[in-house]
């Protein structure tokens, strides 16, 4: 080997270069591996630190179960997500207090109030009216919305046919109509007998003859025009004129009687204010302040879980009106013009909305303080304008 190296020095240089290259490559690979290892350790440490920070943040936030009742525009639901004025206000307050919210939906106000009273939920968030009865079992915040009750009815229109028939019967007009029908039938028979004897051109078959006479009688009764042939000169003219006067009188009587009854029925059944509700059945929401108020003043009610069910009953004629919070009714009429409903009368039985908690809840005071702060800063008014504009 030494002999070869001594005689071929270029081979020795080449081997040394090869060995040096291999060593350099191994060193580079080692450095690359160490670099990747350090980066991995640093990344893992960063992720762990972030996870610990997030966990610490979650541990620092108090989780609360909030009961909600869907009542647009205060609480609306779409695909499991809630929004509305009440929800927006609660989210602002919860963010300031470091509360993590989990919403629990209820189908009616009665169940929501009961769940809040028993502590099944930590808070009730909707357009929940503050009442003396509820204040005895719930802890309320500072009111954040002032409103009252109004009445929803079908849009003004003509009275229903059944109501008109009932009104005609009660007024005695149906009996008069029966006598008129008897006179028309009798006149048809008498004219048929008369014309069969004196008019050679009159149909010989009874069926055609009665039809012709009935047409003549109804023509006079409805249009005042005599269409039959005059067989007796001036005397026939006089009788035709008398018959025409009778027909005009019949039409005038029927028209005036039906019109007067329809007007009376519309006035009797029409609801324009609270004073029109006695003697009628009004739809209310189960467990609502309107239900308590109407029962207190002796007005008949039928309770429904929500506004949709109440409107269906109103359209079907099972109730005469719906009494509920004014903003809820006005919002429904605005977004459902095809329903042909209207809100009538002025605001009555003023009330206020507030968030509710179980008695002795430690959330009442801090939430109230945040609401007061938001009212003083104008944030609550900004929310109201966002959902209701300049409407009062």
TrEMBL record:
It is found in: Membrane. The chain crosses the membrane at residues 176-194, 238-256. GO terms for molecular function: ligand-gated monoatomic ion channel activity. Residues 63-390 form the Ionotropic glutamate receptor C-terminal domain. Residues 63-391 form the Solute-binding protein family 3/N-terminal domain. Gene3D superfamilies: 1.10.287.70, Periplasmic binding protein-like II. Keywords: Glycoprotein, Ion channel, Ion transport, Membrane, Receptor, Transmembrane, Transmembrane helix, Transport. The keyword Glycoprotein applies. The keyword Membrane applies. It is a multi-pass membrane protein. Pfam families: Lig_chan, SBP_bac_3. Its main location: membrane. GO terms for cellular component: membrane. InterPro entries: Ionotropic_Glu_rcpt, Iontro_rcpt_C, Solute-binding_3/MltF_N. SMART domains: PBPb, PBPe. This is Amino acid ABC transporter substrate-binding protein, PAAT family.
